[in-house]
Amino acid sequence: MRLPGLPNPLLPIAVLGAAILLTGLMHLPHFHKELMSIHVWRQTQTQTTIDNFFEEDRNILNPRRNNRGDGDGIFRMEFPLMQWLVAETYRFTGRSIFVTRAFMFLMGIGCVLGMYFFIKKILKDNLLSALSAWAFCFSPAFYYYMINPLPDVFALALGLHGLALTWKSNGPRLLFGLALLSLSALCKLPFGLFFLVPLVQQWSRPENGRQWAGLLAIGLFGLPPVIWYASVVPDWAGNGIVQGLFKSRASVGELTDYLLHNLVSTLPELLVNYAAMPFFLTGVYLAVRRNAPRKYPELLLLGLGLTAYFLFELNMIEKDHDYYLFPFYPLLFLAVGHGIRAFWGHANQKIRLVAVGLLALLPLTAGLRMQTRWQPERPGFNPDLLVHQRALQQAVPADALCIAGNDVSGYIFFYYIDKKGWAFQQDEPTGTQLSDWRNRGAGYLYSDSREIENRATAEGLLDTLVAEHGSVRVFKLKSPR
What is the Rg, in whole angstroms, of the alpha carbon atoms belonging to the chain? Predict the structure, then answer.
C-alpha cells in the first residue's frame, strides 16, 4: 500500500520520524514537571540515586539513598548504569529534572528504533516493521514511562538492540549484541531472559567451531549479571521480588484476580493499546495457525521463560506494576506486527483503510489514557510536598539529618525536602524510637502526622516550630543531654 507523492523506500523513515516527532510534542508539556503520579516512589528512588551520584560520590558501585539514618546510604539493587550516566550528564548541564526527562526520552527513542530493528529481522519488511514500532511508541504504559526516571526503559532499549544484533548472527555483530544484552540484564535482571534467543540459535547451529565459540561468548557475557546479582541479592532481606510466589501471602483467589486483571485489563489497555488489539489478536491467531512456535523455537522459549517470570512475580506485580512487564514488549509487538501485515496486505481495500485508521488512532488513545498521570493536584502523595517543595527544602540547613514522614515508600518525602536521615510510615515510630534517632544525630522533624508530633512532645524532643506549610510541619529537635 503506497502513500501518494512519497517514494516507498522513504516510507519507513517517515513513519519512524513521525512517531518520534509526535510523541515528543505530546510529552513536551511535561518535561519540566516534577515527579508525580503512579509509581512515583520508584521514580523518586531512581532520581535520588542520580542526585547522590552527582552530589556525593561518582563511584558507580556506590548508589546511595536518602533514607539512610546516620549511615552512608549505600544500597545496591540493579546495576545503576543509567543513574550514573544521568548524573554524569549533570556535570555539563547542572542538576535538573528536565535533563533527566530528556535523557529518558532519548532512551525511549532508542526503544522505538530497537523495536523496529528487532521486528525487521523477523518480518523482513521495512515498512511493516516501522508501523509496528509506531504502534509500540504509543503503548500507553511505554508512553507514560518514556520520560520518567526508571531503569526499565534504559534496559529495554539495550535489550531490543541486543536482540536485533544477535538474531542469527556471528562474529563482531554477535559479540556487540551480547554486550548490550549483558548490560540490559545488569540494569534490570528480568531482561536476562533475552539471552534465551541467541542461546537457542547458537545451540541449533551445526556442531562446529562457530557453534562452540558462540556458546562460549554467551556464557562470558552472561557472567557479569550473574556476578552482580549474586553479590547484591543477599542484601535484599525480605524483598518480595526475590521470594516471589513461593513465599507469597496472597491467597489463591487474590492471585487469580491478579492474573485475570493483567490479562483482561493491563494487557489490552496499558501494554498493547485498545486500538492495536485487533492487530495483536490477529497476529496471535496467525502465529498459532501457522505453527510459528515450531518455526521460531527461540521465541517460544523466550515466551515460556517470560511466562514463568510473570507467574513467579505475580504477587509483586499485582494489578498495577505494569513496568514489570516490559520484557514482554518484543513478543507483544511482534504479534502486533504480524497482525498489521495481515490487515495491510489484505485484498479488500476497506480492511487496509481500517488498518490506517487504527494506526492513526493509537496516539489519541494513548494520550487519553495517560492524561491524568501528570496532574500536580493529584500527584500520588501528599500534595503539600509538591506545592511547598522549595520552602520545605530551605527550612533547615542542607546537611541536617532529619526524621521525615509519613512516607510508606521511604523515598518520596526525602526527595521533595532534599534531606537525609530516617523515614517513618503509618505513625509507626514510638517515642523511644524517635529519641534514639535524635540521639544518633537527627536535628529536625518533618511531619504531616499530628500523632508523631504528640509522641515527640511527650518525649520532650521538640524545641521550636521552624516552619509550617500546608499539612507539613518542621520542628527543630532539642539537643541530647
Answer: 25
pLDDT of residue 1: 47
> CA-CA distances (angstroms) from residue 463 to 429, 438, 441, 475?
19, 12, 15, 7
The span from the first CA to the last CA of the chain, in angstroms, equals 82
Q: Which three cell numbers stand for residue 165?
A: 544484533
What was the pLDDT predicted at 345?
83
Q: How far apart are CA 202 and CA 277, in angstroms?
A: 33
* Angle between helix 196-203 and 209-232 (nearest 10): 150
Q: Which three cell numbers stand for residue 105?
A: 526520552
Q: Could you say which residues of the chain have pLDDT below 70?
A: 1-7, 237-248
The C-alpha cell at 201 is 540459535
30: CB partners within 8 A, 6+ apart: 101, 147, 374
Q: Give the max Cα distance, the chain.
A: 86
pTM above 0.85, yes or no: yes
Cell of 263: 490479562
Q: What is the DSSP letter of 6?
A: S
pLDDT of residue 244: 65
Cell of 90: 549533570
Residue pair 163/197 in contact (Cβ under 8 Å)? The answer is yes
Query: Residue 423's beta-bridge partner residues?
Result: 404
Number of neighbours of residue 33 by Cβ within 10 angstroms: 17
Q: Can you tell me the distance from the alpha carbon of 203 to that of 440, in angstroms, rounded to the nearest whole number?
A: 58
pLDDT of residue 3: 47
Residue 72 neighbours by CB distance under 10 Å: 11
What's the grid cell of residue 128? 511493516
Alpha-carbon gap, residue 441 to 401, rounded angstroms: 6
